[in-house]
Amino acid sequence: MTVITDFIHLLLLLLMPPLLLGVINKTKALFAGRVGPPLLQPYYDLIRLMRKGMVLSTTTTWVFRAAPLVTLAAVVLAGLFVPLGPFAAPLGFTGDLVLFAYLFGLARFFTTTAALDTGSPFEGMGAAREVTFACFSEPALFLAFLVLAKLSGTLSLTPMLHAPLTVPLFGLPLASLVLVAAGLFVVLLAENSRIPIDDPNTHLELTMIHEVMVLDHSGPLFGLILYGAAVKLFVLSALVLHVLVPVQTGWAAVNWLLFVVEMLGVAVAIGVVESAMARLQLRHVPTLLVAASLLCGFGFLLMLR
Amino acid sequence: MITWWLLISVGVIAVSGVPGLLLSRQSDLGQRIAAVLNVIGSASGGAALVLQHAHPELSRAISIQWALPVGRFAVAADDLGLIFLVPILLISALGSIYGLTYWLQREHVGNGRKLRLCWGLLTAGMAMVVLARDGVLFLMAWEVMALAAFFLVATEDNKPEVREAAWVYLVATHVGTLSLFAFFALLRYGTGSFQLWSALPASVAPRTAMALFIVGAVGFGLKAGLMPLHVWLPGAHANAPSHVSAILSGVMLKAGLYGLVRVTALLPNPPAWWGVTLLVAGVLSAVLGICFATGQRDLKRLLAYSSIENVGIITLGLGLATLGRSLNRADWVVLGLGGALLHVLNHGLFKPLLFMGAGGILHAAHTRQMDLLGGLGKRMPRTSVLFVIGAVAISGLPPLNGFIGELFIYLGLFRTVTSTGGWGWVGLAAPALALVGAIAVASFVKLLGAVFAGTARSAHAAHAHDPDTLMLLPMWTLAGGCLFIGVVPLFVIGVLDRAVAGWAPPTLGSLGTIRNYVSVAWLTATAIALLAAVTLGALMLTWWRVNKPVRAAGTWDCGYARPTARMQYSGSSLSQMMVELLEWVLWPRRKSPKIDQVFAAPTDFESDVPDVVLDRGLLPSFGFAGRTLTWARAIQRGPVQVYLLYVLGILILLLLFA
User: Fold this and answer.
1) What is the mean pLDDT of chain B?
2) pLDDT in tens, A172-214
3) C-alpha dihedral over B345, B347, B348, B353, to 10 degrees?
4) For residue B491, is it within any domain?
5) CA dist., res. B337 & res. B73, Å (int)
6) Spatial contact of A89 and A100, defined as CB atoms under 8 Å apart
7) Could you give the CA distance from residue B121 to residue B130 in angstroms, rounded to a whole number?
8) Which has the closest alpha carbon to A169: A178, A160, A161?
9) How far is the C-alpha of B414 from the C-alpha of A99, rounded, in Å?
């Protein structure tokens, strides 16, 4: 049974991420009154990129080429520790929550270093913003982990993230979880460079974060980066889902279906946020992220009682 | 037997610089002899430590009456000392090899011999601090260490900034020593002897214990460089020759931490505020240290501030363990102290690696200003690989060693939350540590970006090249150590467990080992998985490149016709956003021109992050004191005879009142 669960986990982790991007883009298109690209467009893009040649900047070194690989490896490995729906994750040990967070740190380290490797001031700006904003989202994530650790009494992601399933309908833990869910959703938007923190659709703007860091990557390297970003979105969405909609049924098949629907729901929600909001001014982004930390912090204080 | 062996090894290192004094200034022979003696002494000492670990029953404490009226020559090695001795011996040997090229006697005729004499003395002093079991011997070793470090910092005493940094260090270290005199006097008062590091007897009044903790924390905290006692650290570590910075930062700071570890073990059941104080001090040091690091423009000052951060992380772990001691929580003790001690080892590997790397850059490009460097990734490929390894390790990222140490501390902090008893708020240190980790990534990405990425911003950087093998070899060794502990932490767990057991009070009962709380096999497995995935990906990419077109072109510049190196994002611009957000802590100094015309004349902009405590607090207040207290100079005449008279007078007064 666990073999099948693990297999489905791996399958979803590796194959589903680009679909989320497709759903987000479709939602935004619908809001804007456009037909929009097909749902599967991100897959086509990836396949095409993998078949292309590439252009390497003469300024770059091995870091530039290694970064997409390290990033992808780190986020996929992180994804193996996050349970999907009510099923246990394939991997898990006491303390994996720290590994999870730090794998994203490793990915960030290499993405930003590679961006700087090109010597382009645009990419420098993106890198500076990425590392700066991460300083605000990282504490929020750990505060959320504190709440979940307190709730579950364990230090491993699978039982921690399954703890909200058994929370009574009324009471302090629920209030705390609501705060944490709000905080984590902001972290999800920030870490994946979505509106209102970053706008993934404009290129070459002076205000960009993630897209501007990968300007010089092309061909398969760029494909790896896009894919890695999609996997990251998938993994963090799956994480946030546990706090956002902690529901399960008695049947495994229904649970998987429910999970997929929920994930698509998160994608739609992101699409709605992106359609309904404008990107924040850069100097207001830290305020939003501090607010997210504070939400999680209040959630933790409630749990301390 | 083993203790004598260790002492002889330390003695060999202590005199390693002496033969050079008898040889010509122009000859490199003395330098080679010093390096050989250093390596022999360290290898022999290391072998003794291995034997000591395998057969602790063979090791016996030495205690000999000496000619001095106070104290004894008492020496012993234990499991806790081992953790501190390993980096001392390792970095001393590697640093002396590194120095063979870096500080070639022929090129440094004026100060090379002094440097090597003090290098040996510093190493021996630090080793004796760890080995000493008598207060008087401890203080003597401590002073040898402190003074040798002063002369090492002041190696290039022809430069005014070096002299200033050395003076600040000398004043700070003696304030610390003063505090330690009080500490040992109190200890003598409490226990009746100078014998060291047994727990205080139950008869000692709580007030005495409190005073002991306070003077101990100040004295040792000054040496460790805890905020706000860090004032001497950035200047001293930035202005010393790089291999000296490596040993000062990677090893000598740990002497202070060693003292703190011993002080917290003085009471079997210390009051909870001991642990809380250390926790708070640790968090403050870690957060503020790395905040200041991120604003620096000087490569070595950045590394120095990052040492303050790392000392903070270690103190945080120690604070958690001390709290566990107070509240009888074996898991906090094991994870807190285990993590702290592992971080002591780890920081002793990656910080020297980074400082030696910085030395290589300084050697090749003749500047520490990051904004003048750039493009070294292409010019110095080996150094760049080594620096990336060091940066990943020091940022606490998997799969390297920094992650393992921080993981233990995180787990300890999380366990305060999952347990009941009203100490859950201690867990708030975990998000603080996460903040530190994120800012560390920001700082080191800035460093790599400004120094190695892009193209050269100055002629110096444009002609830099990798240093020679003798300088690279020590760095490869250290990088290998980082990777080894990161992938196979099991190797050091046994050593840590024994050290923790030596520290924990017997009242705590069976401690268990770190492996009861963390699965080490999982850490190895994930590290290997990560490395394997990246290697596999790299192979696939290489294979792919064989039959697909790869074109080289310039970096995309948005169609701008003539991009120059000056248009790159500099280190200062990378950290500008961070510095602005942290303005209320960092108090950056800016000199920006006022532009009020449409066609402005050429102008310039300057920004810097000085040390708030030293440059904005202490130095101005010292200046004020110097101006207002001139009348007090009347007693400061100058001739030695007058001072001797003062000493005599004080002695007579003391005798009268005693």
Assistant:
1) 90
2) 888 899 999 999 999 999 988 888 888 777 655 566 788 888 8
3) 140
4) yes
5) 29
6) no
7) 14
8) A178
9) 14
- Answer whether residue A139 shows pLDDT above 60: yes
Q: Say yes or no to pLDDT of B71 above 90.
A: no
Domain count, chain A: 1
pLDDT confidence bin for B57, thresholds 50/70/90: confident
**Residue B153 pLDDT exceeds 90:** yes
Paired with A225 in beta bridges are none
Burial of B331 (0-12, 13-18, 19+ CB in 10 A): buried
- Parallel, antiparallel, or unpaired for β B73-75 and B606-608? unpaired
Secondary structure string (H, E, C) spanning B417-477:
HHCCCCCHHHHHHHHHHHHHHHHHHHHHHHHHHHHCCCCCCCHHHHCCCCCCHHHHHHHHH
B154 within domain boundaries: no
Q: Label residue B246 exposed, middle or buried (CB < 10 Å: 0-12, 13-18, 19+).
A: buried
Residue-by-residue DSSP string for B12-47: HHHTTTHHHHHS-TT-SHHHHHHHHHHHHHHHHHHH
Hey, are the CB atoms on B554 and A146 less than 8 Å from each other?
A: no
Between strands B589-591 and B62-64, the pairing is unpaired
A70 CB within 8 Å of a chain B CB: yes
Residue A203's pLDDT is: 59
For the ranges A24-38, A99-113, B548-562, B619-633, the lowest mean pLDDT is seen at B548-562
Distance (Å, whole) CA B259 – CA B436: 25
What's the confidence (pLDDT) of residue A1?
Answer: 63
Domains in chain B: how many in total? Answer: 1
Residue B15's φ and ψ, nearest 5 degrees, are: -95, 10
Domain that holds residue B471: 269-538+569-589
Q: Are the beta carbons of A59 and B454 separated by less than 8 Å?
A: yes
Average pLDDT (B260-288) is 93
The pTM (predicted TM-score) of the whole model is: 0.95
B576 contacts chain A (CB < 8 A): yes
Q: Inter-chain contact B569–A65, Cβ cutoff 8 Å?
A: no
Residue B505 has pLDDT above 90, yes or no: no
A73/B556 touch (CB, cutoff 8 Å), yes or no: no
Size of interface A-B (CB pairs under 8 A): 254
pLDDT of B423-457, one tens digit each? 889 999 999 999 999 999 999 999 999 999 888 88
Query: What pLDDT score was predicted for residue A53?
Result: 86
Domain span including residue A56:
2-304
The pLDDT assigned to A207 comes to: 63
Tokens of A203: 């290129």
Residue B318 lies in a domain: yes
- Find how far residue A215's CA is from the centre of its chain: 21
Give the pair of three-digit tokens for residue A270: 């992101």
Q: Is residue B472 part of a domain?
A: yes
Using the beta-carbon criterion (under 8 Å), do B437 and A102 form an inter-chain contact? yes
Q: What is the mean pLDDT of residues A103-114?
A: 94
Which residues of A are less than 8 Å from B407 in CB distance? 95, 98-99
**How wide is the angle at C-alpha B404 spanned by C-alphas B398 and B405, nearest 5°?**
135
